[in-house]
Automatic annotation (TrEMBL):
The lineage of its organism: Bacteria, Pseudomonadati, Bacteroidota, Cytophagia, Cytophagales. Keywords: Amino-acid biosynthesis, Aromatic amino acid biosynthesis, Isomerase, Tryptophan biosynthesis. One of its GO terms (biological process) is L-tryptophan biosynthetic process. Pathway: Amino-acid biosynthesis; L-tryptophan biosynthesis; L-tryptophan from chorismate: step 3/5. It comes from Hymenobacter perfusus. This is phosphoribosylanthranilate isomerase.
Amino acid sequence: MSLLVPVMVRGINNLSDARYCAGMGADSLTFRLDPSFADYLTPQAVQELSGWVAGVQLIGEFDTLPVAEINALVQQCGLHAVLLHRRRTAEELAQLTVPALKLTPWVQDMMPEDVELRFREQAPHYLGFVLATPPSPLPNATELLRLTEQARTYPVWLGAGFAPDTLRNFVEKVRPAGIVLQGGDEIKPGLRDFDEMEAVFEQLEEE
């Protein structure tokens, strides 16, 4: 299945999600490996899940874990990149053995010049910026215009919830580096409702 834009699915914690998303053409799957997360996965669980999928980038999500321990998990789990929840120093980022993406919050009422400075200063150190959670209310017309400009200057991944109407129209207008979806929990082992996620993939399918 060929998609208009790369899709990242975060928080994979079961085999149903892993296989479904890979089969639907997702570009990358993330696993929460930092013990500071209440729902973190063990390296063994990630190895087991990733062993059933192919053709996708495996990304580990980390918050407070030291870089040396992140690198050890990268090697143990065969990760292709990491998604960092908090800002690291340039020295720490240089020690990582794989590229890093940065989870970036939308800050309501942040001055445009401050947003631009944030992206410009961090861009040399990160593979991309992940704005997974949209604000409420959604960006107004002026904010959306600035977001579009930023997405065309920097590799910005946006959560599907940023779209005010159809996701396809939003992607074609803003042209983000990718779209971010959130994985879910199985109803019971081997049983998962994919209706909502399927609708998103269908909107992004190339015609």
